[in-house]
Write a structure and sequence with these properties.
205 residues, alpha/beta, Rossmann fold, 6-stranded mixed β-sheet, 6 strands, 19% strand
């Protein structure tokens, strides 16, 4: 079965920034791990788009969210990639999750939200503690708006606090991180295939 993935890189850097993005690397590693499972993926840098503040699917003129929303919902697997800042998910990631709040009111005649049947993974990098906390925040939000989280659906790397060695600078990805990425990819592809072949039935309103 052919599957697709769409990733949003919620770095605080736009794509034109000279500094390399560790978030880009962990997303790339995850997409590479998904490919043997028949999943083709695309990555978009969120800051390259103007996502207006708000909780609607379209905030009007100049809002780039509707196009990104369309890509998220067209894919079988959504990857939210983000850095940790001050122990929190990046503000860019929080903006993305805020905009998904609109899904709560966009149910079909069976009560299913637009993300029903879609799988979500969360990939996190940082030079401070907080990966588990950030995963908890993101998983809760994504689950609330209809995504299904697979077992071991969170991957992360955190470096020593306050140091300047980033994930993208490592000469080799740590074995445990590679194992986590491969497991997340395997579980996500398996679950996405099941949901694509047999969708949630919902409930009568």
């Amino acid at each position: 079965m052919s599957l697709t993935a769409f990733a949003l890189n919620c770095s605080l850097k736009a794509s034109g920034d000279k500094e390399k993005s560790s978030t880009d690397k962990i997303i790339a590693d995850l997409l590479a791990a998904l490919k043997p499972h028949g999943v083709e993926g695309e990555v978009v840098r969120t800051l390259d788009h103007d996502i207006k503040p708000g909780v609607l699917s379209d905030m009007g003129r100049g809002d780039d969210w509707p196009g990104l929303r369309e890509k998220i919902l067209a894919a079988d697997i959504f990857i939210l990639g983000l850095p940790i800042w001050l122990g929190q998910p990046s503000s860019v990631a929080k903006r993305v999750m805020e905009r998904m709040d609109a899904f709560l009111e966009e149910t079909d005649d069976k009560g299913r939200m637009p993300a029903a049947g879609k799988v979500a993974l969360v990939a996190i990098v940082g030079n401070e503690d907080g990966a588990h906390h950030c995963h908890a925040e993101c998983f809760q939000a994504l689950n609330d708006v209809g995504f299904t989280i697979p077992a071991n659906g969170g991957v992360y790397w955190v470096g020593e606090a306050m140091h300047d060695v980033n994930y993208v600078d490592l000469p080799k990805t740590p074995a445990k991180v590679t194992e986590a990425i491969e497991m997340a990819a395997s579980n996500a592809a398996h679950l996405a295939g099941l949901l694509k072949s047999k969708a949630y039935v919902g409930v009568d309103k």
